[in-house]
Amino acid sequence: MTDFFSGIEKLQYNPDATELAFRHYNPDEVVLGKRMEDQLRFAVAYWHSFAWPGGDPFGDATFERPWAGDTMDKARLKADVAFEMFDILGAPFFCWHDADIRPEGATFKESRRNFEEIIEYFAAKMESNKTRLLWGTANMFSHRRFMSGAATNPDPEIFAWSAATVKLCLDATHKLGGQNYVLWGGREGYETLLNTDLKRERAQAGRFLQMVVDYKHKIGFEGAILVEPKPQEPSKHQYDFDVATVYGFLKEFGLEGEVQMNIEQGHAILAGHSFEHELALAASLGILGSIDMNRNDYQSGWDTDQFPNNVPEVAMAYYEVLRAGGFSKGGTNFDAKLRRQSLDPVDLIAGHAGAMDVCARGFKAAAAMLEDGTLENKRNARYANWDSEEGKSLMNSDLASIAQTVESSGMNPQPKSGQQEVLENIVNRFV
């Protein structure tokens, strides 16, 4: 045991608590036939909680963490503290990048040894801990070698290094029983077209993802391969801009049946969409896998990765998840970090506890809306005429035949209200 969270007890569900506790998240409460814990499948992000030092573009780190430093002893201490926090929160899952959990070595081989040693350390801890791995991923954006991308890099050696890194991380995810493996192309984009070959880079990215899928099947990894879209950050143009863009990419390279999406609230907003739009679109395309839950500061226009605190927004997101059938292998990963003025250990606990409560409130509201059925009934009624014989025949007809029918029938269609305000009032009854 470490003393980092000294004095902080395991959080309990207590709706009347005035101190640190879960006031809305009861992991054993049954909603839509499943325990809340099994519905929401919360995960702690290792990078923001334990690897981020509290810096920003205008100032140095503000957090003084006892595990800060590039040694294996520090990496093990970080893991000790992380699993203590998982216990306090009762978190069922966590997520990591390779760079979050091991020190960088002087060579790939040295980095691999460090990484594999920490994976063994994780495996031993997981034997006596309830927390499982929701997903693993590779950080192929922070180190200067990735300044021009990983899979899309103009240098074949960077492509090779990246492929070797993903193999290592996928092996580790498989070893730890990970539910998914995520690829986020943090620098898979370009700064200027003056030095960029779009066709070549797209082909490289497509082949890279095909290799990942092939290797997944080779090692018998049964988890999902997830791509996480993100626009304009940090590159001027990202190839994985949003759900629609990624789906077109998957279709181009024959991967639409192999790869799903990990969708983040903050990224959806930066793409000019709502979170629920991206979730609904992914669900309609059959590629909704998992979510990163956070929020942006809407005044900054940047991906600020704050903990969620807007129940109506969260409710609409979970409504789309539930309409899609809920999570299978995916879950709710808190890709969120403290503000750099929040220095104390209790802040880490409070940030997650508050977010879990917000998600619980939003999820229960979403479940109640779905059970009530009014929204779905009104949606179905709006499109009901398409289920008539006349409506069905239109989809199998041609322009000339349709034009003849319109003229001979004397039809004079009139617009019908979409009732947006009525529908929003219905939502407001629940949130």
From TrEMBL:
Keywords: Carbohydrate metabolism, Cytoplasm, Isomerase, Magnesium, Metal-binding, Xylose metabolism. Binds 2 magnesium ions per subunit. Gene3D superfamilies: Divalent-metal-dependent TIM barrel enzymes. The keyword Isomerase applies. It catalyses: alpha-D-xylose = alpha-D-xylulofuranose. It is found in: Cytoplasm. Its EC number is 5.3.1.5. Transmembrane segments: none annotated. Mg(2+) 1 binds at E228, E264, D292, D335. The keyword Metal-binding applies. PANTHER family: PTHR48408, XYLOSE ISOMERASE (PTHR48408:SF1). Homotetramer. This is Xylose isomerase.
